[in-house]
Amino acid sequence: MFLVGLTGGIASGKSSVLQVLQQLGCAVIDVDVIARHVVQPGYPAHRRIVEAFGTEVLLENGDIDRKALGDLIFNQPDRRHLLNAITHPEICREMTKETFKYFLRGYRYVILDVPLLFETKKLLKYMKHTVVVYCDRDTQLARLMQRNNLKQEDAEARIKAQLPLEDKARMARHVLDNSGEWSVTKRQLDPQGGKFLRGWDPERMRPVLSHPRSTYTLNPDRALPRADPCLEGEKQPSVSSYTFPPSPGPSLQEQAQNRVHEGP
Ligand SMILES: CC(C)(COP(=O)(O)OP(=O)(O)OC[C@H]1O[C@@H](n2cnc3c(N)ncnc32)[C@H](O)[C@@H]1O)[C@@H](O)C(=O)NCCC(=O)NCCS
Ligand SMILES: Nc1ncnc2c1ncn2[C@@H]1O[C@H](COP(=O)(O)OP(=O)(O)OP(=O)(O)O)[C@@H](O)[C@H]1O
What superfamily does domain 2-37+101-260 belong to in CATH? Predict the structure, then answer.
């Protein structure tokens, strides 16, 4: 199995791109969704956030007040590092579980939207490809202010909390420019002729089963096809026509993204 690290700057368009990839049938994991999941009341990270930041970062119903916590951490690097130290190990554990679920379902590629991929660097060594969703600084600022209803100085603080997007674009293997109209970006993801990745064909990112042929020699009628683990390889039959392994149901990502995301 191969991992594709999708990253970018705040509000550069990662989630919008990820949603299209999901609609095309790719296995996707949005780390921001996981980050929201692991700080729910009752989870260890929730308790540790309250211990570290006090009850002023809680809403009346006990949920984390994301606006209040964001205002604190985006303006104070030491508090941001503290929040990262609390949440990142939990996020990483959950992300590994979600990736493994896709592995069990026969996917050869999983696309991970990791906003801080180049800041933390920890996951870089596991990525077969890295893709930066880029947009120019003015566009990023305008989209962030509009989406989050932020004043310019607050939006600038959020942008400054990350590496400059130009630097990330230099570090990535592929860059998807999302500075212009959404239709232009979407064209780059088109299954026919889109330039998202070299040899881009979402069909090849769909599941196949990879089992040694010998496992099934007792009953040749039930033999499963062997996987070709390469993007440029032959197309494989879909996993949906086989009964093993059983599907563990929709992933955390699928449940969350079906519920919340509406696209640009
Ligand atoms: C600070 C929080 C409460 C703000 O919540 P909010 O709902 O306003 O934003 P959301 O979670 O949707 O994040 C939006 C974007 O902010 C940026 N961002 C989030 N956390 C950080 C951080 N610690 N450092 C730099 N940028 C960050 C990312 O680009 C992310 O995509 C939240 O982002 C959080 O809990 N962050 C810590 C976990 C984390 O590092 N998440 C990023 C992915 S690992
Ligand atoms: N090409 C585009 N044209 C116009 N609006 C866009 C375009 N791409 C994204 N947007 C809008 O910009 C905002 C940011 O996009 P999106 O949420 O996908 O970014 P993101 O990188 O996932 O953000 P974050 O880092 O905060 O999670 C959203 O309101 C989205 O609808």
Answer: P-loop containing nucleotide triphosphate hydrolases (3.40.50.300)
